[in-house]
Each structure stands twice: as C-alpha cells, then as structure tokens.
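Entry 14. Structure prediction run on the chain below.
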Amino acid sequence: MEITSVNNPLVKDALKLHQKKYRDMFNLFIVEGYHLFEEASKFDIIKYIFTTDKSIKGDNVFYVTNQVLTKLAKTKSPQKVLCVCHKLKNKDITNKVLILAGIQDPGNLGTLLRSALAFEFNTVILDNTVDLYNDKVIRGTQGAMFYLNILEMKAVDFINEYPEYIVYGTALDGIPLEKIRIQKELAIILGNEGQGLTSKILNKTTNNITIRTNDVDSLNVGVAGSIIMHYVSRLPF
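Output returned:
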C-alpha cells in the first residue's frame, strides 16, 4: 500500500515531530536520508520508515508519494527515505566527558558531537542547549549522535555528583591549554557562543583553560572544543 495523502494519520503524527514539544511527548524524532537511515538501523531505534524507494523492505516500511515525502522532510531536496525513531537511551558515564552549557547554534552542537566521537569523549552532557533532536543538529552529527552517551543535566550538578572528575572550564583568562593536567576521569565544559560559561560554573571547576591565538580574541565554540578534545586525545591517560 502506498500512502498518497498528507492527511494520513501516520503522516500527520510524523509531522508533529518537527516540533520539540511533540518529540518530548512521544519520545520520538525524525532522521532523513540514506546515511542517517543506515546509521540508525544499527541501533534498533527505528519505529517506522517512509520511503519512495521500493528496494527498502520491512514490516515497518510505508511507501509514500514524492509529495508526501517532501511534506515530511525539512531539506529542500530530500533523499528517498525518512525514519521515525525512538529517542536514544542513556548509557554509563565514560572516563572522558564533554559538557555543553548553553550552546544554541545547531551547527555548533552537531560539530561538537562529531568531534566528541572522533576524540573519544563518549559521554556528552547537555545543559540548556539547542534540542539534540533538532533536524539541523541531527544532520550536523552525520550519525555520530547514535554512538554517544548523551544526557541532559546541569553542569554544576555533574560536578557535584561526580567529584572524582577533574573538570576544566573554558575562559579567556584561563591557563594555556598546554598546561592541562590529565587523570583517569576528565571533563571539559564549553559555554554559550556569545556569553561563554557563567561565573556559577567557572567557580565550580577544577581549573579553567584557554587556547592561545594570534590576532583574534576568541574562536568559534565548535572549533575551540574540537581543538581541546584533539589535544586531550593525544595525551596519555
């Protein structure tokens, strides 16, 4: 059977997932395109699939018209597959943690999640950030989000609950990155694009670090975070 109407109940329910309140209500989100479909397929989180590609088969596959797929998609030229997925489950806290406090740009969050996976910061704490399941964030991660342990939690609460972690904030007046001290459990905190970290957070960290630069006052948070994680990944634990 092919779904030909955007008023089909399944389609209407899926369309609601473009709004955060419904993603939270139903604990579901949407991924678009072949790559993200293939990545999501590895984790048993796909509830159902909308596609115009008849080579994709399964009990949870619904074939749709181009008109329906275009209505469901957020991209201008959507690929032939779109999935409704269950939200990711939490896992155990790992020894390297990235804490993101107040990140609001979907592109920055996507970049930081990809870098976190690349440099083995396999737990990411989100504190008042843009929604993880925003379509731009999901596309920006290119599937990295499926491999990470991502939790919503206040940065200060993490510091209080996990005192065994050495915690580095980021601040312009911090110590140079090269002086960072490594131990088995380590967390890096990055702050809002415009305001950085709050004094409440900075006052709770073990120490605060900065990246020395030439001719610019600061770096984009996605760039800065990636540099820090790469540097840490090269140090012996």
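The first strand starts at residue 2 and ends at 3.
Filed with the rest of this week's runs.
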